[in-house]
Amino acid sequence: MNQLDKQYKELLFDIIEKGYDKSDRTGTGTRSLFGRQIRHKMSEGFPLLTTKKMYWKGIVTELLWFLRGDTNIKYLVDNNCHIWDGDAYKNYCKWVDSENKKGSDDANALRKTGKLVKQYYVSKLSQEEFINKIKTDADFAKKWGDLGPVYGKQWRSWGRKNVTNYDLKDVKSSDQHKVIKAIENGEDVTKYGVKIEYQNNSIDQIANLINDLKTNPDSRRLMVSAWNVGELDQMTLPPCHYGFQVYTRELSELERMELGKQKGLWKEFQFGNVHPECDKINIPRKAISLMFNMRSNDVPLGLPFNLASYGLLLEILAKEVNMFPDELIANLGDSHIYVNQIEGVKEQLTRKPYQLPKLVINDEFWNHDASLIGQINYIEITDFGISDYQSHPTIKIPLSN
After folding, report:
1. How far is it, in rounded angstroms, from Cα 202 to Cα 256?
2. Given this model, what pLDDT does residue 378 score?
3. Which secondary structure element, helix H or strand E, spans residue 309, and what is its range?
4. How many contiguous H segments (helices) and E segments (strands) does the chain have?
5. CATH code of residue 261
6. Are residues 120 and 34 in the same domain?
7. Strands 324-338 and 286-298, how do they pair?
8. Stretches in the chain below the pLDDT threshold 70
9. Residues 364 and 312 in one domain
10. pLDDT score recorded for residue 4
């Protein structure tokens, strides 16, 4: 039986029936509960919900974006993944509104002196125009597509480059104070002609995690965090899933024999000699589980994505370190349904789950003589697929930004 959809529907039902009405930053309003958990055995199928059709390509695209250390939505947009569009556009709109207010205030101040002035005004692009410009204008995408130091930056490059020396001799004297402040804030000041020397002290948490899994798999420090308190104010949106931890354990002789059987490599082993024989045919010795933590959880839209994304990450890590993907665990903080999502949720609650699908990974790209980190930019979205996926139709559920 599909226990994942069952647990998920129980969570939806509990929020509607027992949740508290709460205000939120978007102004939409939510029903909310705090402190829930979903546990899923990966052996029971890939954690892709069946009570509504899931956008598989978008799930893969976003995870590869994180793993590449990217924070600009251009990669997502170019691959027809639009889940971060609203956040980037909201940031752009704030800037336009701020510039127009400043222009209005400046014009009004000058008018009071008796001067005739034309008000400075920035025309605002529609969201569709904005996304098209991200796709077609590299300079615009570089400026407005970046979301700040969100997940990818924290996973692959926690911390900042430390400035060890800088030269202001080519910087206008009127700009020097501003430039020094910008350097202190870690901003890009190359446009001012500053010569800067850096010491890169950033930390690649994913590379460290993989190394520790290979060299010290019983460590209790196998963790990755996206909650960098020193950079939260620079992020378009602070992390909702703010960290994850992995855990490994030894597989029993019986478990290893069963894995060999599933791979078509099983033969009759004598107990006591199973481990050496399984080693010869590369059957994993260990199982690996992943637990992720969420501070804020849009249950109808975000959680299904997160479950599948971290399930895929668990599978990728397991493949990289030759372990068996065991259990996926989601620890959920503020779990909410927006009030404008309730009708769609009620429709989903009426649906009977199907069997979970299976993950298919293209082994051809996976060169085990090189690290995952070294290969990550060459892995394609199409290297991951889903087989035997049967689902109910898509449910149109609104997103609140």
Report:
1. 39
2. 86
3. helix 302-321
4. 14, 10
5. 3.30.572.10
6. no
7. parallel
8. 105-107, 109-112, 114-120, 160-164, 185-186, 188, 190-191, 198-200, 265-272, 365-370
9. yes
10. 98
- Is residue 77, in this structure, part of any structural domain at all? no
**Residue 80: inside a domain:** no
pTM summary value: 0.87
DSSP string, 363-400: GGG--TTS-HHHHGGG--GGGEEEES---PPP------
List residues with catalytic annotation. Answer: 240
Residue 103: both structure tokens together: 């222009």
Name the token pair of 124.
Answer: 């605002």
Task: Quote the CA–CA distance of 361 and 368 in Å, as a whole number.
Answer: 14
Whether residue 58 contacts residue 114, with contact meaning beta carbons closer than 8 Å, is answered with no
Per-residue model confidence (pLDDT) at position 177: 78
Measured distance CA(4)–CA(356) in Å, rounded: 8
Burial class (CB in 10 A: 0-12, 13-18, 19+), 90: middle
Structure tokens at 43: 């052996």
Q: Is 291 helix (H, G, I), strand (E, B) or coil?
A: strand
Query: Could you give the number of structural domains in the chain?
Result: 3
Question: In this structure, are residues 227 and 149 in contact, taking their beta carbons and an 8 Å threshold?
Answer: no
Residue 257 domain-assigned (yes or no)? yes
SS (H, E, C) 50-99: CCCCCCHHHHHHHHHHHHCCCCECHHHHHCCCCCCHHHHHHHHHHHHHHH
- Give the model confidence (pLDDT) of 57-74 as tens digits: 999 999 999 999 999 999
3-class SS letters over 178-207: HHHHHHHCCCCCHHHCCEEEEEECCECHHH
Q: What span, in angstroms and rounded, lies between the C-alpha atoms of 217 and 209?
A: 10
Assess if residue 395 is contained within a domain: no
Q: Residue 88 corresponds to which tokens in the numbers above?
A: 């980037």
Query: Does residue 203 come out as left (phi exceeding 0), alpha (psi in the -120 to 50 range) or beta?
Result: beta
Q: Are residues 190 and 272 in the same domain?
A: no
Domain that residue 93 falls in = 85-146
Lookup: tokens for 10: 């129980």
Are 98 and 236 found together in one domain?
no
State whether 165 and 214 are in the same domain.
Answer: no
Together in a domain, 356 and 210:
yes
At residue 167, the pLDDT reads: 74
